[in-house]
Amino acid sequence: MPLKALCLPVALAALTITGCASVQYGDARAVETVNTDFGSTDLQLISAKMVDDLLNSPAVMNITRDGRPVLFVDAIRNKTAEHIDTESVTDTISTQLIKSGRFRFVDMSVVAEVARQFDYQRNSGLVDERQSVKMGQQIGARYMIYGNLSGIAKQDGSTRDQYYKFTLKMMDLKTGLVEFQDEKEIRKTRERRWFGL
């Protein structure tokens, strides 16, 4: 059979397969059950529990009673075997804490960019000196939030079990004392079913 005659059916089959695909929007809060890997539902469960527990902690309620302390959220350490975007976990937690109105934040992830802007304002000659931001006036964080995400995966035949544990802590940078610590555990099991069984 000539090569051209083979190409046409293959191209038509490819168009038929891709032509039927459609994209649909879903509920971002719906439970995601595609597989046992860390997913959006896990991120939402972890962040909601941790923020709720932190805000209702007696120590944190005492700390925030007379004002809005400044804190920063350090990168969450991923101790699982999976590639997990822990920055999303950090962002979700810090967003919910800011929305609570009980904290103020410094963003340590942009320190290099801030330093570059200070240098530009001070040394470029393009910024009116009276309008430039003076160095040494930023407010330092009093508290640091940090944590770990660990996981254990096991497989037995067609059954896969995935366990995650997320630990979150808040430290007083002045005293070095841990004022809050809690953890959230998630277990997901998936059993592969074979057709006809």
Automatic annotation (TrEMBL):
PROSITE patterns tied to this protein: PROKAR_LIPOPROTEIN
Organism whose genome encodes this protein: Paraperlucidibaca wandonensis
Name under which the protein is recorded: Penicillin-binding protein activator LpoB
Span of the signal peptide: 1-21
InterPro entries, per database record: LpoB
Swiss-Prot/TrEMBL keywords: Signal
Species classification: Bacteria, Pseudomonadati, Pseudomonadota, Gammaproteobacteria, Moraxellales
Short name of one Pfam family: LpoB
